[in-house]
Design goal:
Blueprint lengths: L2 H39 L8 E4 L3 E6 L2 E6 L5 E4 L3 E5 L5 E5 L5 H13 L9 H28 L2
């Protein structure tokens, strides 16, 4: 292997490593830091919140106020072993920790959502498209940088 081959490889690989590193930095350092900062600013997020399950709505109340959300107004819902997420939009949701609910209460919430035809965990094709575009851009940048560096070397 020629002495310049290592430098040639790094000349096109380095931008990909930098972009990948910045992506990891954003998702695992900057985004969590920003979420913690915003949570500490919104004091109403850290006070006790009570939910009442009625036939017509989910009624929520805390020391800051109360709200009535009709079941039909929820956009979608997701569930895992620990929480239920009831979405009012793609980015706003009510988080219900299952550890504070009985099995009957969790089933009542599910049945109200199903009765109102609220879809469970619908797939978001836009996220897949954005990820594919991001990968395509990375590949194109890598190819362009590699092509230009190999054409410039004698």
């Amino acid at each position: 292997m020629a002495a310049g081959a290592g430098a040639e490889i790094w000349s096109w690989l380095l931008p990909l490593v930098i972009i990948g590193g910045l992506t990891v930095l954003y998702y695992y350092v900057l985004l969590p830091w920003n979420v913690r900062r915003i949570f500490s600013q919104q004091k109403e997020l850290s006070v006790p919140l009570e939910h009442e399950i009625t036939d017509s709505a989910l009624v929520s109340s805390s020391q800051y106020g109360s709200g009535v959300r009709p079941w039909a107004d929820f956009h979608k819902w997701k569930e895992d072993k620990d929480v239920l997420l009831l979405y009012m939009s793609d980015v706003m949701f009510v988080l219900i920790p299952k550890r504070f609910c009985t099995a009957e209460q969790v089933e009542a919430i599910r049945s109200h959502l199903v009765a109102n035809k609220i879809p469970q965990n619908p797939r978001n094709p836009a996220r897949l498209v954005l990820f594919a575009v991001y990968l395509a851009i990375l590949i194109v940048v890598g190819i362009v940088v590699y092509w230009t560096t190999t054409k410039l070397t004698p």
